[in-house]
Amino acid sequence: MNSARLVRIIGTYGVVIALAALVLFGFLRYDRFLGLFNVMSVLRYNSMFALVALGMCFVIMTGGIDLSVGSVAALGSVASALASPHGIVAGLAAGVGAGLAAGLINALLVTRGNLMPFIATLATMLAASGSALLLAGNQTVSVSYDSGFTAIGQGNFWIFPIPAVIALVAYAVGSVVLNYTSTGRTVLAIGGGEDASRLMGLRTDRVKFLVYVASGCLAGLAGVVLASQFGAGQPIEGVGWELFAIAAVVVGGTLLTGGSGSVLTTLAGVLLLGILFNVLNFENGMGWISLSAYWQSVIRGLFLLVVVLLQARLTARRETA
Amino acid sequence: MSDLATPSAANDAGNRRFDVFGFLARYGTVIALVLLVVFNLAYTRNFATLQTLNVNLTQVCTIVIVAVGMTLVIATGGIDLSVGSLMAISGALAPMIFMGTIFPVGNIYLAVAVAMVASILVAGLFGLFNGWLVSRFRIQPIVATLVLFIAGRGIAQVMTNGNLQTFRVPQFQWIGLARPLGIPAQVIIMAVLVAAAAWALHRTVFGRSILAVGGNEKASELAGIAVSRIKLAVYAISGLCAGLAGLVVIAINSSSDANLVGLGMELDAIAAVAVGGTLLSGGKAAIIGTLLGALTIQLVRYTLLANGVPDAAALVVKAGIIAFAVWLQQQHRV
């Protein structure tokens, strides 16, 4: 049991330490790294990914997976852009509503249809992508600039970007739900052993249902932020977001087998991957190296590799202990 | 999955009722394919032409080639998300060799031969790396192959600096453009590959071992099957198939774009495997089924497009088909 705790401690603090080290490195090396502008733009840009990763984190903790988040975000961005002339609330409702619909389909397929999450959400991914293209008529849909809709993505709350505030609130809520509610504990119990949880009388199907619905809604919300931030609903955006989110969750120390995990380290995982890219930009700006943007994905992949190898080592040690 | 808790009485009562599902699950893909052909013969103009056949076959070829490797991986209970990225790598590497970007080439035939062998082998080596992660470190296949899914396309982009490589090299492009006896070359490659894989899966020790590993890994290990080696092999084969498919794609296009080659291929291949009746949990595999699955998906898309339905709507229909096909299998399994 002791090394199980070790796994959790390294899983929890490893990513935080790495994040701190990376930030320190950036601070010492680049002039404006911790400047207000850079910090706020990193937060603003990564808040969409943070929202998607939060939903993914919950799904993964139940032992499932949600491949549809990227195209659901695209669908949400289109829906909210179409509704944006009617105001902030309409745009928000349309985007989140689209996400809710997709999440409901996932939830029904997984709990009622007994489909493997991988396949169910793969199907939803294709369907959402097709619906987004149909809704948008195969082109980007520009949002209305008169209704105040763009404030969601571009506005500030005091000095903080509004999307970052939204993401922070979502993570706070997520953390409370996971740690202090019976629903949250059931999420972890399902991931630890679904049959055992059901036999113990936990309402596994209902909680799984909720988790997929929540993931859909968060993806829809990320779509709203996307549309608002870039001024357009983008039906072909969101490709690969699901895998970025999975990577962030894994880097954050959540095991993909489910049953354990943490919301806040997922946020650290998102920031770590995001800041890695930021550091790369600064390094290029210094002129010492000239790594093209393409190195970004190579480095992210390597990073993921290191993390999963580390996880595998720790899990193996736990099994033998 | 969660079938363990089903009381056996319900199971017995269900057996008769589920016979319909069983029949559909086994022959559903064939029935769907036949229905589609009949529908098209009746409603789609110019359907019964050689050109229609060629168009559909050439479009489905690369998916089938990748899906054959994917079927073997899935039969062991794994999955390979990296195939699209590996296609990009082999598609980026081959032109660099036969156009002399890396080293000067004298004889074009020699250069093409080296290019083809080297790029397929490199993709195979990356596949081996996937297998190594899965078997040596017991990393879940979906995560292990996610590494190369992310990094692989980046590697291809870094190799080419993101630039489009265009070429006109008939000595190479026969793989996608030649038509011996009127049959596209890649269709022949696909057919040979499908036949070889179907034979290997059902008639060789290696094939039976793959199914055994997917059926029950612990038991296979105890029965003396070299589980790690089997896993290494299937991921390597999947890599080789992806490498080959990458070459076919760039040969057809006369160009190689690392950003686009094989994009989304992992999902197409997995969909073909799932619709074809291979269990995604492993232990049962149908190579011919994969071929039929890919053909069905392709024909659905063709039918919709030929009758004026927009491509985006075809995506939605495709999603429905995948979900329904897998759901049907699930009913059979209960």
How are the SSEs ordered, and which strands pair?
The complex is a heterodimer of chains A (321) and B (334).
Chain A: H1 2-29, H2 36-61, H3 69-83, H4 88-111, H5 117-136, E1 141-142, H6 151-154, E2 156-157, E3 160-161, H7 162-180, H8 182-192, H9 194-199, H10 204-230, E4 232-233, H11 241-251, H12 263-286, H13 295-320
Antiparallel strand pairs in A: 1-4, 2-3
Helix pairs in contact in A: 1-12, 1-13, 2-7, 2-8, 2-10, 2-11, 2-12, 3-4, 3-5, 3-10, 4-5, 4-10, 7-8, 8-10, 11-12
Chain B: H1 8-17, H2 19-43, H3 50-75, H4 83-98, H5 108-136, H6 141-160, E1 165-166, H7 170-177, H8 185-203, H9 205-215, H10 217-222, H11 227-253, E2 255-256, H12 265-275, H13 287-306, H14 311-333
Antiparallel strand pairs in B: 1-2
Helix pairs in contact in B: 2-13, 2-14, 3-8, 3-9, 3-11, 3-12, 3-13, 4-5, 4-6, 4-11, 5-6, 5-11, 7-11, 8-9, 9-11, 12-13, 12-14, 13-14
Description:
The complex is a heterodimer of chains A (321) and B (334). In chain A, 75% of the residues lie in helices and 2% in strands. Chain A has helices spanning 2-29, 36-61, 69-83, 88-111, 117-136, 151-154, 162-180, 182-192, 194-199, 204-230, 241-251, 263-286, 295-320; strands spanning 141-142, 156-157, 160-161, 232-233. The radius of gyration of chain A is 20 Å and the shape is globular. Chain A starts with a helix and ends with a helix. Chain B has a domain at 57-264. Chain B has helices at residues 8-17, 19-43, 50-75, 83-98, 108-136, 141-160, 170-177, 185-203, 205-215, 217-222, 227-253, 265-275, 287-306, 311-333; strands at 165-166, 255-256. In chain B, strands 1-2 form a two-stranded antiparallel ribbon. In chain B, α12 packs across α14. Chain B is globular, with a radius of gyration of 21 Å. Classes of the chains: A mainly alpha (321), B mainly alpha (334). Chains A and B meet through α5, α9, α11 and α13 of A and α6, α12 and α14 of B.
